[in-house]
Amino acid sequence: MTDPTDPTTEAAMALLREHGPLHPGEWARLLVTEGHGDLADMEELAECIGHPRLGFLADGRSVALDSLLAGRVLTHRLTDTEIASGILDANPDLTPLLPFDDHDPAAGGLRTLFRDLDDDVFDDRGIGDPEWPKDAALLLEPDTLTEMRAGDLVALAFVDGVLRLTAVGSAPSAAPAPAPDLTGALADLVSEDGPEPLDGVIWQLMADEASLLTSPTIPLGDLLTAAGYVCDGDFIAVAGFDFAAHRGQSHLAMVAAAHHLTDDETDAVTAFLALIGVLERTPDDERERAVDAILASMFDRFAGLAHPNAARAAFGEAYATCRAGTDTLRSAAAVLRDRGPRRIAPTAHWLAGKAAELDGLTTEAERHYERAVSVDPNWDGALAALARFASDRGDAVRAIGLLDRVPGGYDEPMYTLLQSFLPVDRPDLGRNDRCWCGSGRKYKVCHLGKAEHPLEQRAGWLYQKAASFAQGIAWRPLLFSLAQIRSAHDDDPFALYHALDDPLVADVVLFECGAFARFVAERGDLLPEDELLLAHQWLLAERSVHEVEAVRPGKGMTLRDVRTGDRLEVTERSATTQLRAGDFFCARVVPAGSSMQIFGGIEPIAPSQRGRLIELLDADATDPAELVEFLSARFAPPQLVTTDGHPLVACRAVFEVSDTAGVRRRLSRRFGAADKDRWTWTEQGSVLGVLNLVPGTDPWVLEVEANSEPRFQSLLDAVGAADPGGRLREQTRTPAAELVAQAEEKGVRPHEPVDPEDPEIAAVLDEHIRGYEQRWLDETIPALDGHTPRACAADPTRRDELIRLLDSFPQQERPGAMSAHRLREALGL
After folding, report:
1. CB-based contact 707:656 (threshold 8 Å)
2. Closest Cα partner for 717 from 744, 769, 761, 681?
3. Three-class SS state of 404
4. Among residues 256, 330, 265, which one has the least CA distance to residue 303?
5. Do 11 and 36 touch, CB atoms closer than 8 A?
6. Alpha carbon distance 541, 587 (integer Å)
7. Strands 567-571, 162-169: parallel, antiparallel or unpaired by DSSP?
């Protein structure tokens, strides 16, 4: 997708606005004619261009939406829920006019919401029904609709380049303009065989008839119903079309593609899901007859489940998509085993084993997997499962032997690790020689084919066993949701994929989400005795904030647990090449035989983060999502903030003043005396906003400026109170990062700085900075966990943090800069 700000992209959009909707080939040729490149490049641009105001018509042409939608009006009839929440169900009435982009000025401040993506907003607005709305919604200010009643019409229109929402009428039959008949036009655009994209169809109608929907009329949904059509989400079809069946077929096609299934295997998955449906939904007294009917009609189709890929797809769809219970899965496995085609017996045992694993029945699961392999020695799903059991027991030889029988088994995460735990034979000893270990027994009965590794080495193996368990289907929704949070600040298209393997994400699923506790409860009996004891110790180890006190590169380091004060000697190799004394990080440090080790990654922590993180970790139950979000904030782009922590936003408003004398009097009472009709809002020496009364216009105008949205809102409220009859003419809110980018694009450079060596300037700077230093001593400092420097100097437990902070200041005295030397003197350091 192209960059919307690229000059060629803008030129392409300008051509669309000038010439109207264009087919890609026509568009490309026009671009070449305008001198923007060769035909091949422009054809690629026309196919791949990305722009928030670009739309696609049903006939395949591209269109500039801001031109097409200019003057168009769509209406919607309100409900009580919408009035109370300030959220409009946009589908289908308003969908073709939804904001191009929430941040686009043309959106007029409107924002589009979607279920699942914006559930927090729906919750905040008191929407208790998780199924409402089913698709897109339009977010308004909370009180926008409070004066209206259910049945009233509102209109969304694109006027003067901006989307605007207005009231139309109050009676249920209100329809200011005659309703157009869309029957004939829709018949040419919507096939009877399947659905079409709703937006493209409506935009096509607008492109074909310039006068269509230019005045408020009945809602679009009613127009479509009257014409004999029905909508479902973003699609339109003829009335009576089975959208549910269509969605099922489309989903199944995606499943088939993901698992590389043949048509026969896809049919087998469909048959299995039909069996699951019968077992789940049929009353007990009718279930046996229903199962008989399924087997009679689909017996041959079940044969496709003999292929492991089809079996995996069937299990995943039944459990994750259809939410089938384990009892149902176990019953389905029994039906296939006892009454299905003979060739799917291994699949039936494997399915039963998966159901048993989900219930934590380890012994039963292993028994089913063994039966699957006894019927088909090469059934890879069962072989891989048995390899995990062997690994849990510490039997690296058997585990690798099983994985070697699985196609691509050497790509399994545990394969390489298992290699390091294989026994090493002693060619210098015969089978009947005394064993090298000194036991007195023969080598063949003592250590031949066996390996003994200290617990310190096997700790990593134990962690991998648990991590493999946490990759199971029961934990994948949690893993996926945390990976989404972890990758939120990464623009790489593969960021989510990489985040699924992120050490922090995996560790939080294991411990904060409870997967490790489940692993110990369900698989603990398989573990060697000393590993089981170690696993129980790990359950007691908490994630914490640690200070690096000493580093031994390539060997280990000495840590101080900030929460407990404990000092730990940790064996660690890779991290010691990057950490240095004085660094802080968040990690889980766990015992590992005779050493302490770190699994689950090391998260660097800035001084200003420590207090909040400790609060988070000290909570009775640390929220996993909140923890990952906090520790992932370091990947976010830097944000400019005000002294009170709010994002830096250049805000400006212009009011038309109705009572000049009253405004002067009331603003002076609130902000102090004006300087030539200019009021400066200051607190503790900081300028928070400016108000400037500008003469020479009729009426006079008042300009209001602030550098954060909360401060700006305070000024707007103050002006509203000072001049109730005033009118807000315009307002803008521009993030600081956007201002910087605009300045860079225009080649703007800062003015020449003042000369700090000038004696007069140096004197002013010195006086100012000394006053600031005195105030700083008693300010709450984020880097000191919210304590003041003076309080930290008096507290032996916090003095080290204060000293480190002062050491981070420039040590060379400079005009206009705080003096670390003067601060130390003032604090008695």
Report:
1. no
2. 681
3. coil
4. 265
5. yes
6. 11
7. unpaired
E strands within 736-809? none
Least confident of 169-173, 178-182, 567-571: 169-173
Task: Name every residue whose Cβ is closer than 8 Å to that of residue 516 and which is 6 or more positions away in sequence.
Answer: 466, 470, 510, 535, 538, 539
Taking residues 273-287, report their average pLDDT: 93
> CB–CB of 715/691 below 8 Å?
yes
Residues 6+ apart with CB under 8 A from 386: 366, 369, 370, 373, 402
Q: Exposed/middle/buried for 592, CB within 10 Å: 0-12, 13-18, 19+?
A: buried
**Within a 10 A sphere around the Cβ of 498, how many other Cβ atoms?**
13
Q: Catalogue the E-assigned strands of 57-199.
A: 62-64, 73-77, 87-89, 111-114, 136-139, 153-159, 162-169, 196-197
Its sign, for the CA torsion 106, 58, 178, 227, is negative
Query: Is the pLDDT assigned to residue 199 strictly greater than 60?
Result: yes
Give the Å distances, CA to CA, from 235 to 58, 232, 241, 246, 474. 12, 5, 11, 11, 33
- Nearest-angstrom CA–CA distance, 257 and 245: 18
CB 774 within 8 A of CB 768: no
Question: Could you give the angle at the alpha carbon of 455 between the alpha carbons of 454 and 459, nearest 5°?
Answer: 130
Strands 235-238 and 556-561, sheet pairing: unpaired
Residue 758's SS3 state is coil
Q: Which pTM value belongs to this model?
A: 0.67
Residue 130 burial by Cβ neighbours in a 10 Å radius (0-12, 13-18, 19+): exposed
| Helix or strand (DSSP H, E) at 231 | strand 229-232
SS3 (DSSP) at 239: coil
Helix, coil or strand: residue 658? coil
Alpha helices in 570-690 (DSSP H): 610-618, 624-632, 660-671
pLDDT digits (tens, 9 = 90+) for 604-644: 998 778 888 999 999 888 899 999 999 998 888 766 666 66
Q: Which residue has the higher pLDDT, 631 or 761?
A: 631
Q: Which two tokens stand for residue 501?
A: 């393997």
Angle (CA) 466-387-270 rounded to 5° is 90
DSSP state of 317: I
Dihedral (Cα; 718, 723, 729, 732), 10-degree rounding: -10
Q: How far apart are CA 821 and CA 812, in angstroms?
A: 9
- The H or E element containing residue 654 is strand 649-656
- State both tokens at 663: 């405004």
C-alpha to C-alpha distance for 741 and 708, rounded to whole angstroms: 18
The token duo for 633 is 């904030």
Per the CB < 8 A criterion, the answer to whether 152 and 77 are in contact is yes
Quick one: which of 214, 218, 186 has its CA closest to 202? 186
Q: Give DSSP secondary structure letters for 547-592.
A: EEEEEETTTEEEEEETTT--EEEEE-SGGGGT--TT-EEEEEEEEE
CB atoms inside a 10 Å sphere around CB 366: 20
The pair of structure tokens assigned to 697 is 């216009």
Report which secondary-structure segment, H or E, holds 735.
Answer: strand 727-735
Whole-number Å distance between alpha carbons of 568 and 380:
44
- Report the length, in residues, of the chain: 829
